[in-house]
Specification:
The structure is a single chain. Helix content is about 10%, strand content about 35%. It has about 450 residues and is mostly beta strands. The chain has one domain: 6 Propeller (Neuraminidase). It has a 5-stranded mixed sheet, with no helix packed on it. The two termini are about 40 Å apart.
Length: about 450
Amino acid sequence: MKWTERRRGAALISAALLISVATGPVRSQTRVSANTAAVIPQFAVDTGFFKLPNAWKFAQVSSVACDSHDNVWVLQRPLTAYSDQPSGPALMEFDAKGNYLRGWGGKDFGKGKGFDWPEEEHGISIDNQDHVWVTGNWNDDQIYEFTTDGTLIKQFGNSAGGYKKTNADTANFWMPAAAVVYPDTHELFVADGYGNNRVIVVDAATGAFKRMWGAFGNAPVDIPPRKEDIRRAQQTTAQRFGGAEQFRTEYFLNGGKERPNETTAGQPAYPASPKVAADDPGPPQFNLVHDLKISHDGLVYVADRRNMRIQVFTVAGKFLKSTFVDRWCATSCTGTNTQTSGSIGFSGDAEQRFLYIGSRTPAQIWVYDRKSMSPLYAFGRAGIGPGEFLSFHELATDSRGNLYTADLEGHRAEKFTFTGLASSQVDQKGHLVDTRGMVKVR
């Protein structure tokens, strides 16, 4: 069986597992008074927005971003394209009407240019100068800054290996998931979350280390993999295997021997399986820092995906608040992939009144009141139809308030057009009394 056919089969199985989750009632951890009026953003799914040339089809779509012109950038993984479907370059730029403008990047893109393209594409962001920042995944520890035409400006991080990978290292990353420039200080904030479990900040011009922090502002500490993951990695070093702990095995295969914070059962002492007790803040360390965004008022929102929470900090790293997202998934989701808060976006108004959170396993987008961090409502479900998600990976917003999503296993990007605000009633559990009309398909 071809690898692409196995991927297709895995995607269909994932959809079947998720449908039973997404069709259930939306749950919230925040209670509000009965019959509370809430102002809610409305959206319409634009099914024909992305106009691909040359009969191309998207491969796995890993990330999306918007620039100052409201052009939409899509980062895909061309090597994951189905064998019977032609795909384009790794990075594609579309104008505000969805017309394809240009594309570049991919497996051999760096040859002769002094750098290696990431083995697996992961994150993209566009800074205030419309420079394009790209992070890799899987044996990729570097971050790139490009011009819009694909000219490399600089590379941060070490792609050669040969060093001990640990959270204490301030000169290197370890499979960073996302990188965002904060224009007020021209600092690069990195979600260094697949191998390490931290937010690390460096000078965006020089790469010089500034500061870092873990969950709740704690010092980030290495989380060892399970013994079973190390054994499997040693036996199948050329193959990938399931489970998020796979990403930490490289440290131990690359010279690290110590196993701190280990229980007698050979499992990490943390992160523990999330409890659904209201007074439990969750593990003291991040577990898969998958995304971060910085608001206009200088707050850093961090998506702690496997811990199913969003944490908020000042740009200096001071912890402010934490909130769980679909925490019920820890005990009620089908399968073992219980991950929720994987991506973050802000509404297009100057105050960024609403926070959008992509919830991976439940396959939905939560709308939060950003100031109070109160959930308002969620939309979406598992599937391959308009407005549905097979494997929700990232989201982005433009200045008009439109939402764009990256569906990894669904091999597509989608646009949700912002159509205005509406007042709706919310029940005592924080659910909209009537969600009809909040999201339409067109």
